[in-house]
Design a protein that fits this description.
Helix content: 55-70%
Protein name: DUF2281 domain-containing protein
Distance between the termini: 81 Å
Radius of gyration: 22 Å
Largest sheet: none
Order of helices and strands: HHH
Mean pLDDT: 79
Low-confidence stretches: none
């Protein structure tokens, strides 16, 4: 039995709440490893080299939002737009 098979077998025996806790722990470890990898890659870049870390940063942000339990709904964005016609122009 592989490590993954063994872990899944044991996890299936746990109640749902504990399964979710294990999953959050696994996501945390993955987040930490990704963060270390991003930091190491940043250190390895030489001066003058440019590298886009946007995707990794976005993934890190999404994982942080998910781990914090932050959720967005349409109500959060309902009144963000300024609906005024703008300033008055005097000619």
């Amino acid at each position: 039995m592989t490590v993954i098979e063994n872990a899944v077998s044991k996890m299936q025996k746990l109640p749902t709440e504990e399964q979710q806790q294990v999953l959050r722990f696994i996501e945390f470890i993955a987040f930490e490893l990704a963060d270390r990898q991003v930091n190491q890659e940043s250190e390895n870049l030489k001066e003058g080299q440019q590298k886009s870390d946007f995707w990794k940063g976005l993934q890190k942000f999404r994982l942080t939002i998910q781990n914090e339990g932050v959720g967005f709904t349409n109500e959060d964005f309902a009144d963000l737009r300024d609906r005024s016609v703008g300033r008055e122009i005097i000619l």
